[in-house]
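Complex 362.
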Amino acid sequence: MTAFASLPTPAILIDRGKLEANIGAMQEVCTAHGVELRPHIKTHKLVEVARRQLAAGAAGLTCAKLGEAEAMLPSGVRSLFVAHSLVDPAQAPRLAALAEQIPDLRVAVTSELHAAALEKVAAAAGLKLAVMLAVDTGLGREGVRDLATAQRVAARLARSAHLELRGFYTHEGHFYGIPREQQVPMARALIDRICALRDVIDPALPVWPGCSVSARLIAEQSAGRVQAVRPGAYMFGDLYLTEVTGVMRPEDVAVQVLATVVDKPESGLALIDAGSKTFASDRTADNIHARAADGRDLAVVRVNEEHGYVRGSAADSLQLGERVAFIPAHICPVINLTDEVTVSNGDRIIATWRVVARGKTR
Ligand SMILES: Cc1ncc(COP(=O)(O)O)c(C=O)c1O
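Predicted structure with pyridoxal-5'-phosphate bound:
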């Protein structure tokens, strides 16, 4: 921590060794089971991380928005999936420009209604777009709810001049809320459901499920039925992945929020200079925004914009001006709130990376 004593805070610290180990570990599981890794870049929003994921063997990248995809072009990505419901024909020129630079560009089709809207966007772009059909597997967000609807969408796509069905995907964000002992049976059920639907429509098409909670389990149990997974947060980690879902060890988390103790207004409470404009507002089920990374009993239990309220048995021993590194509850919004991250190799600061896709919500 000594090298960080002079860093202005709040600062987002990335441990390069742990980052690369997490990228390598997920890639290894996927490769061992013949499943492609197509990481979602919404978590890191960093070209430097995308490059490392691709160099480690990722088959492509996943993005939420066109702006994220555009920001990732310097990574040299050749296969990219925009996993969102595009409806605005005004985006057609950007889509066409992306298609020129990315040989395997795919976008999501998320319902019957959406297929009609996307057709117009693709027509305006003058493209025949490869599309992945979303299947809802329990989150209740985008995606067809039943086989009959999937068949109708597939039939519509088969007649389309501008869209071509190239596979199926699901985002199982509800896995963050399931008890640990149910993760394996739920992953099996998810594979069965999405593959059964695929097998009726076209057994030759790929299925791409797999968030950070489920990706490893799905790869391990795919038995050739699943072709790719798309985890986002796995290479950084956060409290959702360590203490909420238990799929990651705390010591493997590659990112920390460094904050400074700025006051101790009463016994048992310390205030730090990082609040909701650093941690965002996400909390664990125990209402924790962040926890000290060094194992001391210190938790951010409440946030205002520029203040974090730290409680725990070690709170009274904190000194004003002391720097404390925290692991946030949810890493994705934390990265989206910072212009740059500080990269370390052990105790040495080695780089600053710009969060180029920060705020690319369009
Ligand atoms: C469509 C889609 N794919 C993949 C992911 C990656 O999820 P995670 O960050 O849990 O790995 C998300 C996360 O929101 C998503 O919305």
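DSSP finds eleven helices and 17 strands in the chain.
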